[in-house]
Structures are given as structure tokens and as C-alpha cells.
Write a structure and sequence with these properties.
Layout (H helix, E strand, L loop, with lengths): L47 H29 L13 H6 L3 H31 L6 H9 L6 H11 L8 H13 L18 E4 L2 E4 L8 E6 L24 E7 L23 E6 L6 E6 L5 E4 L7 E5 L19 H26 L3 H9 L4 H29 L3 H6 L5 H4 L2 H9 L6 H30 L1
Parallel strand pairs: 3-4
Antiparallel strand pairs: 1-2, 2-8, 4-7, 5-6, 5-8
Helix pairs in contact: 1-13, 3-7, 3-9, 4-7, 7-9, 8-9, 9-13, 12-13
Length: 473
């Protein structure tokens, strides 16, 4: 029997298949496996060299306009006003020891507490209202329009709005109009009795009273002087009062002065003017301040006190007749100057808050709102429990942005506050400019104030940046 021949044997096969341990050793066993190099991925975007070339100009500008001023201000804040003597932290200590600087810190605290909250709240209200009115576009345009005006121009506008004279200041014009709608605006602060023995009346504790006792059935004359001719331009001619009846006292209150000379003192002459709207009281003599009757003078100055019991009386014109009429509030005074400027700030930024919140409101799923209404929730409950929580990220962004803007406010305070009350309205940014360049000449303290303001603003900027990064991810 002969073996089957299947062709020439490959020496690398060995004899393992035949089960013979005597076959030649495998050559492949001692050879290393070839290493494969992974393919390099293609680069996406420009090369690092090209990126650096484009970023370098921006980095240089950032360093020249931001980094260098900050570093220089830190170094400058450690020196005195002239920049020659190293004083360490003395300028920072002065911030919290000087009364005027403490006033600026207090004012900034007032700004941070009230201005951002007011702007955010008004923006939320406006954004919700614009979804329920037909003329929403026009309303948004009107509210957002102040954003197109610079802060300097807004300050000029509100400087005129807050003028004390109601004929020029819109705020006081509105207040005086409302006040006049509910009460008389008549007042004669310049009127006074003649200072001589023959005058039948005299001044007493701000009021004008008759010198002699008056009984019911008598007529009295109350001559006054000192009223400006311009205030009498539309006044009627004074008349002698009609004879009184039983239990009545009549009389005339008029300006006892004839222009051009002539006339008789203490008598109602033909060209003299009556004082209209003057309150007249009959006060019982010996009875304290008990008022028996009250009347108001007619356009010709005449009055009639009726229903008086027998006895002696004193005819009195109360002090209220001689007080200056209400001309509004002193918006630019030391008491109201900070709230007035905050009002201007709210007017400028409420439109920005409204647009930001309205954008967030449009992204709220309407299904959640409708489901709550179907479940029986009122509109207030829907607003408080669903709308506001879903808008909380946008509200926080607006609120933090407004805090940063209030800490940096300068233009409005500088323009609106008069020079006499600017110390009461001062803020850190304005104080920094004032002590450095506005006549103070102390750039060391000004640099310290700048760094102090940067420290106050920096946490809120970091908070905003982190939120923007989280939203982008």
C-alpha cells in the first residue's frame, strides 16, 4: 500500500495535524506580529497658529483697556494723592471712615435694595399685561422707547420733570392738579393787616382777628395789605356787605390799597379788590377757641356768619388763609433726591426688563397653564405658582443685571441732582470721579473707590457668566 500524496508539504504546517511530535518547529512562532499605525484624524478648523494670530489683537486690546487699568488702579490706590508716598491700605480705610464716603456707600445700598427689585417687578407686570391687551405692540414700543435715549439725555429730561414750579415740572403739575380737584387752592401768604392803631384788625399767632368784640347784628371790615397786584389781576371789585339780620355778622375782606394813590384807609373804595375764598370764623369771646359760625368770602370779599347766639364774638381769619398754596413736592431737595433719581432709573430700564421677561414668558409651555386653569386654579394662583417659578431663571438674570447697573450708576445722579444736594445723592461711581477729577485731586482715594466698586460688581458678573454657561450646555 502506498501513501496518498496531496502535493508538496509546506514546512510551516508542521506535523501537528498528523499527530507527530517530531515535525519541524514553526517559523511563525518566533516572528513578531506587524504593528499597525492608526490613521490621523483630519483637523477641524484653523490651525493653532492661525487662531493665535486672530486672537492676539483682541488679547492686546483686552490687556490695554481692561487688565492694565485694573492693575494700575490697584497699585495707585496704595499711594497718596500725589502718587509719591506709599500709604498702604490708608485709602481703603478712608472709605469707611470719611462721613461723605459713607453716605455714598449708604446710597448705593439703597439703590441695590430698591431699584433692581422695582425694575424686575415692573418688567414682569408689563410682560404679563402685554399678553392680554390688543395694543400690545404699541404698549411695548412706548415702554421700551426710553432705552433708545442715553442716560445723559434721560437725566436732562427728569431734571425738568422734577422742577419745583408746577408750570415747568410735570411731576408737581400732576400733584397740584389732583390736589386742586379735591380742595381749594386759594391762599394769600403775603396778605397782612396794617400795622397802626387805627386798623380794626391785628395779627395774632398767624391769624388775623378783630381788635374789638363784635355782636350779632353788626357789620365788620377786615382790611388787608401786602397782596401783589399780579395776584389780583382777576379779582372782583370789593363791595360793602349787606346789613346783617338778627343772629348774623356780615363784613368784607379786601385789599385796602388803591393803585395810583387816593382812597381812604379802612374804607372800601371803588377800585379796591376783594379777596375771594377766605375762611372767616366767629369765635365766642371768653369761650376758648369755640367757633360759633364759619363762612367763606364771595368774589367781592363779602361774607355772612349766621346762626349766632347772643354774646360777644371775635371775627377771625384762620392761619390757613395765609399759608402758601400747595406747589407740589421738593423732588430735588435733600430728602427726596435719591428716590427721585431711582424713579428715573426705573423709567429707563423697565422696558429692557419687560422685553427680557416677555421672551421667557413666550417659551413657557401653555399646556401647563391651561391644565392649571382646568383644575380650577385662579389667575393669581396660575401666576404665582406656575408662571413665576418657570420664569425664575429669566427673572434672576434681569435682577442680577440690574444690580450691576445700579452699582455703576453715574450719569443720572450727576445730571439730576443739583450741586447743593449732590452730597446727599452721591454714589460710589460719582464719588470716584469727584475725588479724582472733579476738584478733589486725590487719585489715590479715587483708585481705591474704583477697586472697591470692582469688588462689589465682580461677584454678580461671575454669577451671570456661570448661569450663561449652564444654559449654553
Amino acid at each position: 500500500m502506498t501513501d496518498r500524496f496531496d502535493g508538496p508539504r509546506d514546512p510551516r504546517d508542521g506535523d501537528a495535524a498528523a499527530g507527530s511530535p517530531a515535525g519541524p518547529p514553526s517559523v511563525a512562532a518566533g516572528r513578531a506580529a506587524p504593528q499597525t499605525t492608526p490613521a490621523r484624524r483630519p483637523r477641524l478648523g484653523p490651525s493653532p497658529t492661525l487662531a493665535v494670530a486672530f486672537l492676539l489683537p483682541a488679547a492686546v486690546l483686552l490687556g490695554a483697556m481692561v487688565i492694565y487699568p485694573i492693575v494700575y488702579s490697584i497699585v495707585r490706590s496704595l499711594y497718596d494723592a500725589g502718587g509719591d508716598t506709599f500709604v498702604g491700605a490708608a485709602n481703603y480705610t478712608a472709605i469707611f471712615s470719611d462721613p461723605s464716603t459713607l453716605t455714598t456707600v449708604r446710597n448705593n445700598l439703597i439703590w441695590v435694595v430698591f431699584a433692581p427689585a422695582t425694575v424686575t417687578a415692573l418688567g414682569l407686570v408689563f410682560a404679563v399685561l402685554t399678553e392680554r391687551i390688543r395694543w400690545a405692540t404699541a404698549f411695548k414700543l412706548v415702554v421700551f422707547m426710553p432705552m433708545a435715549v442715553s442716560l445723559m439725555a434721560s437725566g436732562v429730561i427728569f431734571r425738568l420733570v422734577y422742577e419745583q414750579d408746577p408750570d415747568r415740572g410735570v411731576a408737581n403739575a400732576v400733584l397740584t392738579s389732583v390736589r386742586d380737584a379735591f380742595g381749594s387752592a386759594e391762599g394769600h401768604p403775603d396778605a397782612r393787616p396794617r400795622e397802626n392803631e387805627r386798623s380794626p384788625v391785628t395779627a395774632e399767632r398767624g391769624a388775623v382777628v378783630t381788635k374789638e368784640a363784635v355782636r350779632p347784628g353788626q357789620a365788620v371790615l377786615v382790611p388787608l395789605v401786602g397782596v401783589k397786584p399780579a395776584d389780583l389781576a382777576g379779582a372782583a371789585t370789593a363791595r360793602t356787605a349787606a346789613p346783617p339780620g338778627p343772629g348774623d355778622i356780615t363784613g368784607t375782606v379786601w385789599v385796602d390799597f388803591t393803585q395810583g394813590g387816593g382812597g381812604q384807609a379802612g374804607q372800601v373804595d371803588g377800585t379796591e379788590k376783594g379777596l375771594a375764598g377766605v375762611t372767616v370764623e366767629a369765635v365766642r369771646r371768653g369761650g376758648g377757641d369755640a367757633v360759633g359760625a364759619t363762612a367763606v368770602t364771595e368774589p367781592d370779599g363779602t361774607f355772612r356768619l349766621t346762626g349766632l347766639a347772643p354774646g360777644d364774638y371775635v371775627v377771625r381769619l384762620p392761619q390757613s388763609n395765609f399759608e402758601a398754596p400747595f406747589n407740589g413736592l421738593s423732588w430735588l431737595g435733600p430728602t427726596l433726591i435719591t428716590p427721585a433719581i431711582i424713579g428715573a432709573f426705573v423709567w429707563v430700564w423697565a422696558g429692557f426688563a419687560m422685553v427680557m421677561i416677555a421672551a421667557g414668558l413666550s417659551a413657557i409651555p401653555r399646556d401647563a397653564l391651561e391644565a392649571a386653569r382646568i383644575d380650577g386654579a385662579s389667575e393669581w394662583q396660575v401666576f404665582r405658582r406656575i408662571t413665576v417659578p418657570l420664569l425664575s431663571p429669566v427673572l434672576l438674570v434681569v435682577f442680577v443685571t440690574m444690580i450691576i447697573n445700579t452699582l455703576k450708576v453715574f450719569d443720572l445722579v450727576f445730571v439730576i441732582a443739583p450741586g447743593s444736594v449732590q452730597p446727599q445723592a452721591n454714589v460710589i461711581a460719582l464719588e470716584m470721579w469727584r475725588v479724582s477729577f472733579g476738584g478733589g485731586g486725590h487719585q489715590g482715594l479715587g483708585s481705591a473707590l474704583a477697586i472697591f466698586l470692582l469688588v462689589l460688581v465682580l461677584p454678580f458678573m461671575i454669577l451671570n457668566i456661570r448661569r450663561f454657561r449652564r444654559e449654553s450646555q
